[in-house]
Amino acid sequence: MQWGITRALPHTLPERRDALNEIRARHDATCPLCCGAGNYTHTVLGEGNPEAELVFVGEAPGDKEDATGKPFQGDSGAKLDEMIKAMGFSREQVFITNVLKIRPQLNQTPTKEQIEQCAGFLAEQLVVIRPKVIVPMGGPAAKQLLRKDEGISLLRGKWGVWVAPSGCQVMPIPVMPTFHPAYLLRNYTLETRALMWSDMKLVMTKLSAK
Ligand code: URA
Q1: Taking Cα atoms as reference points, which of 181, 205, 177 lies closest to residue 192?
Q2: For ligand 1, what atom is nearest to the CA of residue 98?
Q3: Which of the residues in the chain have pLDDT under 50?
Q4: Does the predicted model carry a pTM greater than 0.90?
Q5: CATH topology of domain 13-208
Q6: Which of 44, 59, 178 should be mutated for ligand 1, with most atoms under 8 A from CB?
Q7: Which terminus of the chain has a smaller tally of CB atoms within 10 A, N or C?
């Protein structure tokens, strides 16, 4: 972890953009997980507004993300875009990233060990952006950000906080876990849609508060 510890926190848009680019370059050169893996085409660091008030965190890139280097393409991406739009934002206004920055072998759910190896880069991205709210989508992202072991059905819909690594001069950031868009698509019922939307309404209320 460098930003916020050995390097001053970036504040302006160009400073934050440069910091995110630097994290990307350092990740691609040094990540203990991703540099040792040979099964991917592109790293997928994330994209969006370096000053975003709202950051969405998914699990890991899939095939389409691996092919393009961009997070949340394909059906999950379309569902996420729909949700972002319904919340009154565009993809360019928020920031979208993942816990893992490369496609896991056979698209498997990342293990705790894999997450630990790569997740420092996610923490640095969050330190640089310092959004008002973080929305982890699905169990792996929610567990990693909240440091909890419960599944997403228990974690979703309740506020938690993301605490920056010790030594960072960054206040805890509110976290609202919700379902992963892929889960929603697999379980497309009135109930799951209503639950996810109620999570996003809590986020919108928090964002509109002073
Ligand atoms: N699922 C994720 O968790 N992230 C992506 O970028 C795409 C699908």
Answers
A1: 181
A2: 4
A3: none
A4: yes
A5: Uracil-DNA Glycosylase, subunit E (3.40.470)
A6: 59
A7: C
